[in-house]
Amino acid sequence: QVQLQESGPGLVKPSQTLSLTCTVSGASITTSYYYWTWIRQPAGKGLEWIGYISYSGSTSYSPSLKGRTAISRDTSNNQFTLKLSSVTPEDTAMYYCARATDFTIQTHTNPSEYSYDYWGQGTQVTVSS
Prior knowledge:
By secondary structure, the protein is mainly beta. Helices cover about 5% and strands about 45% of the residues. The chain is built from one helix and eleven strands; from the N terminus they run βββββββββαββ. Strands 2, 4, 5, 6, 9, 10 and 11 form a seven-stranded mixed sheet that branches. A four-stranded antiparallel sheet has the order 1-3-8-7, with no helix packed on it.
C-alpha cells in the first residue's frame, strides 16, 4: 500500500518561502515510471497543478508558478520537497502531494488533465502576516 504524507508549517508570512515535504511509504520515489507531484486547491476553487519530480529526478513546473517553484528529493529518506518562494496571500491553499503514472504524463499535454493513483491527505497552508 502506497502512502503519501505532507508535512510543513501551516502558516507562512508574505514574501517568505513555503516549504513542504511529502514522505512516501510503500514505494520508492526512484521506481520507474512514476512522477511525484504537488497540487494545490484554494478554498472554493479547483485543483492547480504545481509541478512534479520524476523517478529519474527530472522536474517540471507550472508556467504560472515557474521562477518561484522548486521541487527536490531526498532519496535516502524517500521524500520530495516543494519550495515556493515570495509567497502572497494568493498562495493560501490546501496543498497535496500525489503520484502520477508515466501513462498520464505521456498522454496528456495539459497538466490539469493528469490523474493520480495515490494522494496524501493534504495540508492547509495560510499566507498571512
